[in-house]
Specification:
By secondary structure, the chain is α/β, with parallel strands linked by helices. It has 14 helices and 13 strands. The structure holds NADP nicotinamide-adenine-dinucleotide phosphate (NAP).
Length: 313
C-alpha cells in the first residue's frame, strides 16, 4: 500500500465511482490503491468497499474541508456529482468548484471530472426548438456539468474531462426499460427517432477511468468521450427482444411528448434526448468506441449484456 499511488474516488458507493474502485482493486499489481469517499462510512456499501480492500474516508461535496482532507496525499481524484439527488445545477457547480479547489490546493497529480456537454453551446437559450428550463438551462443536468469544466481549469487542477454516456442500466433501474402495453406486448419508449444513442454499462465508466489514470500525463487537459455502443431505438429493441426471447417494439415518441410525461426530470430528459437526436453526429462523434475499448479492453456490448441479465431476473 505504502508504495502505491492513491486514487481518491468520489461517488465510490455509486455506479461510476464504484466501477472505478472495483477496477483498481481487481488489479493488485497495477500500482494504485483506492481511497473511497462517502458521506456515510458505516453504510453497507461503504463496508463492502472496505472489505474488498479500499480505504474508506468520510467526505461531503458541500464541505470543502472534508474534501481537502480526503484529497491529502493522493495521486489521482475521480470527481462526480449526483444531479438526481437534488435537481439543482447551482449545487452541482458549487460541488464541482469545491472538488476542483481541493484537488488543486492538495497538489493532486491527475483529476478526472465526470462531465457532459453544455448543450447551450449548440442550442442557445433563445433557440425555442426546446424549452428553457430553470431560467438558464436547456438540459440542466448536462449544462451544469459542462459549465463546471472551466472551474477545474481555472483552479489549475490537472484534469481529464470525461464525457460519459447513457447507462444501459437505466433500462433496469431508472424505469426506462420496456413496459407492457395494453396488448401485453413490450414497448421501449424513447424520443430518439431513427438516431443513434451512445450507451455504456455503468460499470464500464469506472473501468475506462482506470484506463485513463493508467495512461496518466498524456490524458491531462484532454476531453475524452466513452461509450460501449451507439444504437438506434430499433436496434436496442431488437437486442432486448433477443435477450428476453419475446417481441419488443420501439415506440419513437417526440421529445415534446416525453417532456409531458410528468415524472420528475421528464422535461430535462426530453430536452436531453432531443439534443442527442438533433446533434447525433457531434454527440456520437465525441464518444469514440475504439478509444473506449483501448482504455477498457473488457468494455461490454452494453444493451445486449445488460438485457441478458435483465432477462434472467
Ligand atoms: N444515469 C445515466 O444514464 C447517466 C449517464 C451519464 C451521467 N450520469 C450522471 O451520473 C451522476 C451520478 O453518478 P452515479 O450514477 O455514479 O451516482 P449514484 O450511483 O446514484 O451514486 C451517487 C454517489 O454520489 C455520492 N454522493 C452524492 N452526493 C454526495 C455528497 N454531497 N457528498 C459526497 N458524496 C456524494 C454518493 O455517496 P454516498 O451516498 O455514499 O455519500 C454515491 O456514491 C449524475 O450527476 C448523472 O447526471 C448519469
Amino acid at each position: 500500500m505504502a508504495d502505491k499511488r492513491i486514487i481518491a474516488v468520489v461517488g465510490a458507493t455509486g455506479a461510476q465511482g464504484g466501477g472505478l474502485v472495483r477496477a483498481i482493486l481487481q488489479d493488485p499489481s497495477g500500482g494504485f490503491a483506492v481511497r473511497a469517499l462517502t458521506r456515510n462510512p458505516k453504510s453497507d456499501r461503504a463496508a463492502e468497499l472496505a472489505r474488498l480492500g479500499a480505504e474508506v474516508v468520510e467526505a461531503h461535496l458541500d464541505h470543502p474541508e472534508s474534501l481537502k482532507r480526503a484529497f491529502q496525499g493522493v495521486h489521482g481524484a475521480y470527481c462526480v456529482t449526483n444531479f438526481w439527488e437534488h435537481f439543482s445545477p447551482a449545487k452541482e457547480m458549487a460541488q464541482a468548484a469545491n472538488m476542483a479547489k481541493a484537488a488543486a490546493e492538495g497538489g493532486v497529480t491527475h483529476v478526472i471530472w465526470s462531465t457532459l456537454e453544455d448543450t447551450r453551446r449548440w442550442v442557445p437559450l433563445d433557440d425555442d426548438r426546446m424549452p428553457t428550463l430553470m431560467t438558464e438551462y436547456k438540459v440542466p443536468h448536462f449544462d451544469a456539468k459542462g459549465e463546471a469544466n472551466h472551474l477545474f481549469a481555472d483552479h489549475g487542477a490537472p484534469t481529464t474531462f470525461l464525457l460519459t454516456s447513457f447507462y444501459w442500466d437505466n433500462l433496469i433501474s431508472f424505469g426506462m426499460g420496456p413496459k407492457k402495453g395494453a396488448d401485453g406486448k413490450l414497448v421501449l419508449t424513447l424520443p430518439m427517432g431513427d438516431k443513434k444513442l451512445p450507451g455504456i454499462a455503468a460499470e464500464d465508466i469506472g473501468k475506462c477511468a482506470y484506463g485513463i489514470f493508467k495512461q496518466g500525463r498524456s490524458y491531462i487537459g484532454r476531453t475524452v468521450g466513452i461509450a460501449g455502443e451507439h444504437l438506434t431505438g430499433t436496434a436496442m429493441a431488437a437486442a432486448l427482444a433477443r435477450a428476453l426471447g419475446r417481441e419488443v417494439i420501439y415506440n419513437a415518441v417526440t421529445p415534446a411528448a416525453y417532456r409531458s410525461f410528468g415524472f420528475p426530470g421528464a422535461e430535462d430528459l426530453g430536452n436531453m434526448f432531443q439534443f442527442k437526436q438533433e446533434f447525433e453526429a457531434a454527440f456520437c462523434g465525441a464518444r469514440d468506441l475504439d478509444e473506449s475499448r483501448s482504455l477498457n479492453p473488457e468494455l461490454q456490448m452494453g444493451v445486449t449484456s445488460r438485457a441478458l441479465r435483465l432477462g434472467t431476473q
